TrEMBL record:
This is HTH luxR-type domain-containing protein. Gene3D superfamilies: Tetratricopeptide repeat domain, Winged helix-like DNA-binding domain superfamily/Winged helix DNA-binding domain. The chain crosses the membrane at residues 290-311. Pfam families: GerE. GO terms for biological process: regulation of DNA-templated transcription. Residues 314-341 form a coiled coil. PROSITE patterns: HTH_LUXR_2 (PS50043). Keywords: Coiled coil, DNA-binding, Membrane, Transcription, Transcription regulation, Transmembrane, Transmembrane helix. GO terms for molecular function: DNA binding. Residues 347-404 form the HTH luxR-type domain.
Amino acid sequence: MLTKVFFRVIVFLLLFLFVGKGFSQSYNFEEISQKVTSFNNVGKYDDTIILLEEIINSKQATAYDKYQAYFFKYITYKRLFSYDKAELNLNLALKEGLKSDVYREVIISKVKLEKLFIAFDQLKFTEVNTILEEIKPEDLKHISPNTHAFYLAVLAVVESKEENFEKAIEYLDNAIEILEKEKPVDLPLMYRKKIDIYRQMNQYDKALKSFDQGLYYAKKYNMDIYILNMYYDLAYFYNQIKDYENAVITQEICNLLSKEYDERTAIGRLNVLETKLHNQRIDQEKKEHLVSVVVMIVICIIVIIIFFLLYRYILKSKVRKECLRLENEQLRNNIMSFISEPNIQQYSSELLQLTERQLEIVELVKQGKTNKEIGEKLYISENTVKYHLKNIYKVLNVNSREDL
């Protein structure tokens, strides 16, 4: 009985300690993507990081879940032009993605393209050309239409550097066609590249038209960063064609817009937030570790107590059995001694006809025990004692217990 209780207690405590660790939580990343985009579009980068860190630090999150979360962090930091942080999170995304059993080829291709975009944004064209050589047709099969559009934009700039301007415009037109269907919010990124290519082609009217088109979509979707970048490109355009008056005016607009969109302040705030979240995570892990240690100590104490009680029960049972054995042996010796005495020789034959139980009752009667006390001693009812005494009187040919 105690053994069963022991195992039940242990199983209960182990379930209490580890419950929930084997169950994974399902995340709706389509919904999370919408939240991240919504937060980032209005400058709520803190909310984005908090949302994603909850997934990254969740013990229920799968490797693929963490890949997605790190990838969204990469996008957030890239948007703020914090390329060191962006690349760090992209590498962490790849690390988690490779642990996953799903979409491995898609993940590898996607990260490869994103590394291309990081190098491109930082104007590292030697690295851009190296990565372009590594990108295979199979990689393009695994990327989204949006990513394909950005890939075409990179090819357009590479062609423009080789002065293949018509080919560059063709790439950008294809990218625009894709984004018009898939993600028009990013169209300003394509039109701003057209500005400089048309400038190099001395087609200034088309350059200014591209600016107007890009600015239209940036304002339509309330993309402050795109509005700012369109004006930066326009200022550069005016400087390059030596229209300094318009260049100064445009630069003043850029200065005003940049005050409203201060990515450095945002990055600094996010660094503080990430440090705070990191410290909170360490504190939480310490608390969880302490709870685990306390629970294990409690389990050990309970196990020790149960083993001690089990040991005492077994020991007590052994002692009780030994006492009963010694009492029976003593009783038998007393009876044998009794029947060997001269004054009771005439009863020896009758005594030998008694059962062991009846002999025990005779001995207890001689000790002055009542019927109730004899019953308690031998674990039998008082009526059973009376029944045995009746038979004993009959066998020994006596009339009462005093004759015994």
